Amino acid sequence: MTLDFSEEECMVRDVVQRIVETHIRPRAVELDEEESFPWPQIKVLADNGLMGILVPQKYGGQQGSHLLYAMVVEEIARACAATALVYFTNTHGQLPILLAGTDTQKVHYLPPMANGEWLGALAVTEPQNGSDAAHMQCRATRVSDGYVLNGEKIFITNGDKADVMVVFARTGEPGARGISAFIVERKNGVVTSRVERKMGVRGSSTAALRFEDVFVPTVQRLGEEHQGFSTLMRTFDTTRLSTAAQAVGIAQGAYDIALEYTLVRQQFGRRIFDFQGMQFRLSEMLADITAGRALLYQTARLVDTGKPFTMEAAMAKLWCSEMAGRVTNQAVQALGGYGYMREFGVERMMRDAKITQIYDGTSDIQKLVIARRVLDVVQGRRGAQ
Ligand SMILES: Cc1cc2nc3c(=O)[nH]c(=O)nc-3n(C[C@H](O)[C@H](O)[C@H](O)COP(=O)(O)OP(=O)(O)OC[C@H]3O[C@@H](n4cnc5c(N)ncnc54)[C@H](O)[C@@H]3O)c2cc1C
């Protein structure tokens, strides 16, 4: 596609591609099979100044564009979706601080999260409240100089590894108007109660966390009390770019393998690529990926130019994640029985693709976000008539 990339965006993408080929792709199978956390890969990304792309330079970040960020996530996911997840979850921990933090909070927390010294996480989901985050139950009770957190969060990426996490909890009335956001350091008493075993992205860590009278000083509350839900919704707008980029990367990775295989594999005395049916399959895969990438990059540019992007981010997340499901499935099919075996990696990509349809709001939830925006526009137009 013909988007104009800046010199910096092209340069950083080249650096990331080299890092991926040298340090990330060679370890992707091992991470999946051993369910080992990609600390060495994260260190390399940190050493190359990539852990704080969206963080302003004055807080130790790279101050890059959202398009650059999406390209970096995509390149990593093309080789290893689990490393991409661990990587972008660190950014997800930074986002609420960027959106609602005071200068003091930014000065204290963003530099170590942007240079890889501290790993970040975002804790929203609870046992009884996933999609319906507005009714979360984890409670932050006010005490004289802060809050005491009690409750449980589940499925938290980096949950057992992160040094610092942004936790959303109830401070007031039921529903969206009673939620606040807090910066919580894990060393202050957050207990890992369980580490999940998963279908895909197995090199990432997904943990349940227990908060039992965890004290959080008032200075670590993000934004006004009870205003956390709006910070969360704005955070999700950007996290959806990460997932969409991860989905595009996974799909591209699977396509690359399928193309290479079909150019070599012979059946009926010909390369299987030469069968028109196979060409149709590969062409549809490529068109699907290219459409997803166009939507993703266009949405990233909307963010970079300060335009509204809530609906576009939901559409990008919905389209790219469903597309990654279709494309990885077709990649396995293109390799036949070998596609089902572990050695070619496409079965891993098919497993990894599934999660992109679930986290950061399931595909159903993206459709609700889109429909709400559509209704806002229609009702706004009717109101103006
Ligand atoms: C590997 C992994 C990593 C994760 N990382 C994080 C993380 O870092 N931080 C975090 O906070 N959470 C994280 N999550 C949680 C994730 O965001 C939730 O699983 C997701 O939002 C769905 O919530 P749920 O699992 O409770 O499903 P539910 O909300 O119970 O949904 C179950 C089904 O019902 C459908 N559904 C629900 N409501 C509606 C509706 N209104 N209309 C139509 N259909 C509906 C859903 O689409 C889904 O199909 C992670 C999850 C996984 C699996």
Provide structural commentary.
- Residues 6-117 form the Acyl-CoA dehydrogenase/oxidase N-terminal domain.
- Its cofactor is FAD.
- Residues 121-214 form the Acyl-CoA oxidase/dehydrogenase middle domain.
- Residues 227-375 form the Acyl-CoA dehydrogenase/oxidase C-terminal domain.
- Keywords: FAD, Flavoprotein, Oxidoreductase.
- This protein has 385 residues and is α+β, with helices and mostly antiparallel strands.
- The chain has three domains: 7-114, Butyryl-Coa Dehydrogenase, subunit A, domain 1 (Orthogonal Bundle), CATH 1.10.540; 120-229, Butyryl-CoA Dehydrogenase, subunit A, domain 2, CATH 2.40.110.10; 236-384, Butyryl-CoA Dehydrogenase, subunit A, domain 3 (Up-down Bundle).
- It contains twelve helices and ten strands.
- Strands 1-4-5-8 form a four-stranded mixed sheet. The chain has a four-stranded antiparallel sheet with strand order 2-3-7-6, covered by helices on one side. It has a two-stranded antiparallel ribbon with strand order 9-10.
- Strand 2 (139-143) and strand 3 (146-157) form a beta hairpin.
- The longest helix is centred in the middle third of the chain and has 37 residues, at 228-264.
- The two termini are 39 Å apart.
- Bound molecules: flavin-adenine dinucleotide (FAD).
- Flavin-adenine dinucleotide is lined by residues 89, 122-125, 130-131, 155-157, 198, 201, 206, 355, 358-359, 361-362, 364-365, 368.
- The site of flavin-adenine dinucleotide has 21 residues, from strand 1, strand 3 and helix 12.
